[in-house]
Amino acid sequence: MTTDAAPPVPAEVQQWIGRTRYPETADFPVERGYLWTSCASVENGNPLYWDDEVAARITGGPVAPPSTLSLWFRPHHWQPGQTAQKLPLQVHFDLKDRLGLPEAIMSDSEVTFHEPVRPGDVISTTQVLRSLSDPKTTKLGTGRFWVIDVPYRNQRGDLVGVETFTGFGYRRAAPPAPASPESGTATTDAPEPGTPQSDAPTPRWTAGHVVLGDVAVGDALPTLAYDVTATTVVLGALATRDWRPMHHDRDFAIERNGARDIFLNTPNQQAWFERFVTDWTGPLGRPGRLGFRMRDSVYPGDTMTLTGTVTATETDATGCGWATVAIEVRAGDPPRLCTTATLRIALPTSVDDNPWRRTGDRWVP
């Protein structure tokens, strides 16, 4: 390991670990137009977000899709008096700068959803560097992994969610070569997306009206296949207020990132996962915790296929019912594995139960 590839960690950076930094309040309240744009970007027709009567009955009024938690903190691309473009997740960029690591990716993300976010809420947040690894060498290059926690609270101080990001900052071993249309992790030993498994239980549920007692481990969710276009990618970036050029500028994505085209961004993938699972559960399904790892990119021209399998069911000590769903995203021809995810979602335990009405100690995601 050379000092050029992995210089020592400055004392200043060591002191960041465990320290709360960058307290911030969103520039504007949670706004319904963005909520509808987010749903439109993934064609999420959940009536909870479109029909005020449904929202009043289930959640006591309109709520934001849980997957929109972070969009309120992506800064405007420009505003009066701004001399330099503000960056989201500033600790991530501080680490790149102070560690001398010019490249960085987000490899893993986990988000836990607490109290619902509602239109008009004003969200505040901080950033905490949780850990910093020793030097590591991967296929991308040599650098360090870091983990950053981002808690979110509303104007009343209620915890509405916590995101945890795993980043990898590195120096490339060699300049990137543009990806070919065939590049990616092929999964030739895996069944085609949506292929029925002979030992899978026969579902007793009806998609859109799922009750916990009708769900069994091994149940396969209805497959979601979607033909991705450049508009899909750009709309997803717009909906999540992500102005990074690799999600709208093809030349930048190819020449700077070594990708073959622009590609879906991280928070928009969260919205796809939410849509996929709540298409199955219906509006009473309440996401509790989502974790995912990105292995490859989804590009315009790909057919993106989401498949899911129930891996666990339980009723917790508060009486809340839960199903855990393992999700895989494949894209391209032949299909390559792009993302793996796990979503823990609360389900009604009876026709009279409503997980969205749980608050405080009765909601343990």
Q: Give the CATH architecture of the largest domain.
A: Roll
Number of domains: 2
What structural category arises from helix and sheet content?
Answer: alpha+beta
What composes the largest sheet? 11 strands, antiparallel
CATH topology of the largest domain: Thiol Ester Dehydrase, Chain A
Roughly how many Å is the radius of gyration?
Answer: 21 Å
Please give the CATH class of the largest domain: Alpha Beta
CATH superfamily membership of the largest domain = Hotdog Thioesterase
Strand content: 25-35%
Shape by Cα distribution: globular
* Average pLDDT metric: 91
**CA(first)-CA(last) distance:** 41 Å
Summarize the structure.
With 365 residues, the protein is of the alpha+beta class. It is built from seven helices and eleven strands.
Architecture overview:
With 365 residues, this protein is an alpha+beta fold. It has two domains: 1-27 and 75-174, Roll (Thiol Ester Dehydrase, Chain A); 178-365, Hotdog Thioesterase (Thiol Ester Dehydrase, Chain A), CATH 3.10.129. It has seven helices and eleven strands. Strand 4 and strand 5 (141-153) form a beta hairpin. Helix 2 (32-41) packs antiparallel against helix 5 (230-239). The two termini are 41 Å apart.
